[in-house]
């Protein structure tokens, strides 16, 4: 019932804002410390739209309904796809670039809507600018993306899903504190599968927020030989900002943290500047294209 009321409220807000935000000047100046950057018209509209959906600061612990409802409204209004399953499979044509992406806490689908879809679009644009036959595949990392896992340093299963491990063994993940942190080995991992099936594909490991923790954990567990093949690593709003991505060539790692984004210091509160990394997908895409 509570959810229904919240959702209805947001739907009304969506309809109302359809008429208002389109007439607003495009977002260029931000009051919360996000640098002013040129973004596409559509991204600019989405940014001003989401500023209406989220409060200036909220507790991540209680943000599940807020995030789900707001993200559904964003997906609906902007026609965004929050699920991507294009991991290369044996017998299918290989993509030139494979992005393995981990979404943020309480984002919907397997890539969310705040940063992922805009980032993928920007990478497609940036890579096709120099070579129109470059193809880009995207795989969202399947994991729960819930608050308790963020507190523990990033969902273990999600990290495991992204990395490689020997069969029939348990492995200890970074920062493991209890027996449950030793994971049984049950699934194929995304990064290794992409490189196994398509040795020529350029793998990009990327994540937003808790997805950044997932990237860090996965990188720490991947064999050095596999990490050496990773084309680039991009993390938006990284809770582990300042910590190197293990095994990655430092020049191939881009961590984007807005100055006022306290999630980049591991905060449990989310400022508005954590929700606006869509403003940085152009820069991130240029970085990816440069390292192919
Ligand atoms: C353009 O991309 C395709 C697909 O990745 C590749 O086979 C081709 O060699 C590239 N061409 C140039 C000029 O880099
Ligand atoms: C992120 O880390 C860099 C390097 O340690 C630091 O200069 C920067 O202030 C950090 N950003 C935030 C928002 O904490």
Automatic annotation (TrEMBL):
It catalyses: cutin + H2O = cutin monomers. The keyword Disulfide bond applies. InterPro entries: AB_hydrolase_fold, Cutinase/axe, CUTINASE_2, Cutinase_monf. GO terms for molecular function: cutinase activity. The active site is at 209 (nucleophile), 261, 274 (proton donor/acceptor). It is found in: Secreted. Gene3D superfamilies: alpha/beta hydrolase (3.40.50.1820). It comes from the Eukaryota. SMART domains: Cutinase (SM01110). PANTHER family: CUTINASE, CUTINASE 2-RELATED. Belongs to the cutinase family. This is cutinase. It comes from Thyridium curvatum.
């Amino acid at each position: 019932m509570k959810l229904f009321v919240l959702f209805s409220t947001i739907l009304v807000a969506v309809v109302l804002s359809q008429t208002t935000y389109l007439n607003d000047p495009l977002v260029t100046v931000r009051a919360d410390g996000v640098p002013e950057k040129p973004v596409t018209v559509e991204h600019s509209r989405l940014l001003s739209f989401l500023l209406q959906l989220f409060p200036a600061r909220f507790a991540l612990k209680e943000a599940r309904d807020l995030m789900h409802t707001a993200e559904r409204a964003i997906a609906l209004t902007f026609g965004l796809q929050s699920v991507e399953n294009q991991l290369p499979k044996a017998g299918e044509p290989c993509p030139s670039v494979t992005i393995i992406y981990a979404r943020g806490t309480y984002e919907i689908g397997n890539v969310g809507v705040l940063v992922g879809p805009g980032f993928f679009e920007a990478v497609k644009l940036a890579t096709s600018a120099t070579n129109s036959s470059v193809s880009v595949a995207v795989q969202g990392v399947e994991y729960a993306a819930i608050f308790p896992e963020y507190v523990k340093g990033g969902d273990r299963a999600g990290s495991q899903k992204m990395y490689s491990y020997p069969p029939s063994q348990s492995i200890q993940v970074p920062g493991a504190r209890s027996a449950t942190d030793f994971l049984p080995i049950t699934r194929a991992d995304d990064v290794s599968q992409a490189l196994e099936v398509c040795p020529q594909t350029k793998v990009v490991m990327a994540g937003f927020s808790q997805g950044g923790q997932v990237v860090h954990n996965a990188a720490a567990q991947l064999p050095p030989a596999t990490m050496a093949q990773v084309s680039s690593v991009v993390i938006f709003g990284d809770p582990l900002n300042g910590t190197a991505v293990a095994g990655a060539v430092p020049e191939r790692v881009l961590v984007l943290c807005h100055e006022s984004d306290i999630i980049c210091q591991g905060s449990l509160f989310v400022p508005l500047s954590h929700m606006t990394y869509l403003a940085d997908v152009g820069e991130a895409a240029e970085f990816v294209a440069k390292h192919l």
